[in-house]
Design brief:
Blueprint lengths: L1 E6 L3 H15 L3 E5 L10 H6 L2 E6 L7 E6 L5 E5 L12 E6 L2 E7 L10 H22 L3 E6 L23 H14 L1 E3 H5 L8 E2 L5 H4 L2 E2 L2 E6 H4 L2 E6 L15 E5 L2
Helix pairs in contact: 3-4
């Protein structure tokens, strides 16, 4: 099974690139974040024509997440929203079961700055995610939680750790919250499992030519349960989708899992 996660930073704006990715890689399941669609303008028709069924949680111009499932596979038992999320209208979590695996697409709040009121909210969201991961684990051994976590797991996941001292995405409280999600769900970082030491990034600021200078961060993650770890065959970041006309500031992360 090929699984992809991608923060598209507006699905309507990036739909041609999404359809290009579906055609190029033919992934079985895709987790999208920051779709920024209302329920009424989510591109279901176009995705259906591409061969995909969709579970989406759409909150309008902010956030929004989705799971695309390539037929003949089909999503089952969808759940929209994260229990315990204090701002559920932003639509940052959705789930479905595909081929016996519980898949989650999530978009963790940014947190803004360490002294912002949004920072405790970020940690609270991650705490709720850890509790949900533990609950799923009790019911199902095969679990994938993927998306834009807005956390770089360690210093090897940013181009220069010194640049991020005193800022979000690399602080110890955020990293501890990420570890708690992994521990609660018995989850491993799929990319780091396949590439123990290789530094690659999934996000680059639009400004100052950061992409071309490779000044990025790895904040888009695929966390897989230990039951799936032995089936991890490959993982990689397709930088080509960060290039071209009006790209997202994130690149898709691809993970191949033998089921």
């Amino acid at each position: 099974m090929l699984f992809v996660t991608w923060n598209v930073n507006s699905l309507r704006a990036r739909l041609p690139r999404v359809l290009e990715l579906l055609e190029a890689h033919q992934p079985d399941v895709v987790a999208l974040q920051e779709t920024k669609c209302g329920p009424e303008n989510f591109p279901l028709v176009e995705l259906d024509a591409a061969g995909y069924d969709v579970v989406h949680h759409s909150g309008g111009q902010w956030a929004g997440v989705a799971l695309l499932v390539r037929r003949p596979l089909a999503p089952d038992l969808p759940l929209l929203g994260l229990p315990g999320d204090t701002v559920p209208t932003e639509a940052r979590w959705c789930e479905a079961t595909v081929a016996g695996v519980r898949f989650v697409s999530t978009y963790v709040p940014n947190g803004r700055t360490l002294d912002s009121p949004e920072f405790p909210r970020k940690l609270g969201f991650m705490d709720a995610a850890a509790k949900r991961a533990a609950a799923i684990r009790q019911e199902q051994s095969s679990l994938v939680i993927a998306g834009d976590f807005n956390v770089a797991p360690d210093d090897g996941d940013v181009y220069d750790p010194a640049v991020y001292i005193g800022s979000t995405h690399t602080s110890e409280p955020e990293r501890a919250a990420l570890r708690a999600i992994q521990e609660s769900g018995a989850l491993i970082d799929a990319y780091r499992h396949v590439h123990p030491a290789e530094a690659q990034f999934t996000w680059w600021d639009y400004r100052a030519g950061n992409f071309h200078k490779n000044l990025g961060m790895r904040i888009d993650l695929v966390l897989v349960s230990s039951a799936l770890a032995d089936g991890l065959m490959a993982a990689g970041i397709d930088r080509d989708f960060r290039k071209g006309f009006r790209p997202s500031d994130h690149a898709p992360l691809l993970v191949w899992i033998g089921l």
